[in-house]
Write a structure and sequence with these properties.
The protein contains four helices and no strands. By secondary structure, the protein is mainly α. Helix 1 packs antiparallel against helix 2. It is elongated and about 60 Å long.
């Protein structure tokens, strides 16, 4: 009997996909749930030092938030 991939959590889908590497459907569903474009921050290439510094001021809090989130998910790697 085929599992209900739509009802599975992302973690369960990942685990299933890793143990059933020949099946594409769980990966398609998992990738379909991700919408990186909605979370993307797109910058133009900096034209000078001030542009670069301004972009870094914007990026730093995002990087710190992502680092903290990764630590919270897996405290053994921090």
């Amino acid at each position: 009997m085929k599992p209900n991939f739509e009802a599975m959590t992302n973690e369960a889908l990942k685990a299933y996909a890793l143990t059933h590497r020949d099946e594409l459907e769980p990966l398609q569903i998992l990738f379909g749930r991700r919408s990186p474009d909605s979370e993307a921050v797109i910058f133009q290439a900096p034209k000078n030092w001030e542009d670069w510094q301004q972009q870094m001021e914007t990026i730093r809090p995002i990087l710190e938030r992502d680092r903290q989130s990764a630590k919270d998910r897996n405290p053994r790697t921090s």
